[in-house]
Amino acid sequence: MNATFDFSGRSILVTGASSGIGRATVEALCASGAEVVAAARNVSELARLAEETGCEPLALDVSDEAAIDDVFATLGVFDGLVNCAGIALLEKAVDTTGASFDRVMAVNARGAVLVAKHVARGMIEGRRAGSIVNVSSQAALVALDEHLSYSASKAALDAVTRALCVELGGLGIRVNSVNPTVTLTPMAVQAWSDPAKRDPALKAIPLGRFAEPSEIASVVLFLLSGAASMVSGVCLAVDGGYTVR
Predict the structure, then answer these.
(1) Is 150 an active-site residue?
(2) Residue tagged active-site, from 5, 7, 72, 150
(3) Domains and CATH numbers, the chain
(4) pLDDT tens digits, one per residue of 132-142
């Protein structure tokens, strides 16, 4: 269940909003009174989400720099950003290609940088304090089989979080990462469906289970909220204890 926060009058952009953690975050923010722009590539799912929550849907591919530039030419200033767009191409390290590596980095790291740049500019020009939350992964903190590209992209995203924290902190803009364990999104359910892979992962989590999207969304809302007013530059593991082993 999501914690209760009041985001009335605050405008938040969420990327990767059509499913999983992004969708749960949009639902929680809308229920908390925020004005949410929900961005994703899946137009049909965005339309359904908009009907259910009242968010404003925005078709956007975060790997397309020109499309991002065009979109932000018409968008207003945001109080918050949740960079949740992400993909995972799981493969053995020896099978990794330049194309697959570049594709994952383009969405998970590069796309987050390009969106955050525009949101931060708006905050600065509007003299508005704000909060940016990047949805990273425990794979940025620990090594996992078949996750080379994904882990590299999320580790890069954590580095982006720290760099933005330093550059933007003096302007009143906080930047943090959330690093979830396996979360039961459609992408993760498929990736961890094999019991030979799933069961050892579950045993490595002291709480003994994977996360629900709403549990990650609750932490995202906390970091966006005034309750986290002195929290910046943190890469917060939300992993049931996985990374302490």
Answers:
(1) yes
(2) 150
(3) 11-233 (3.40.50.720)
(4) 999 999 999 99
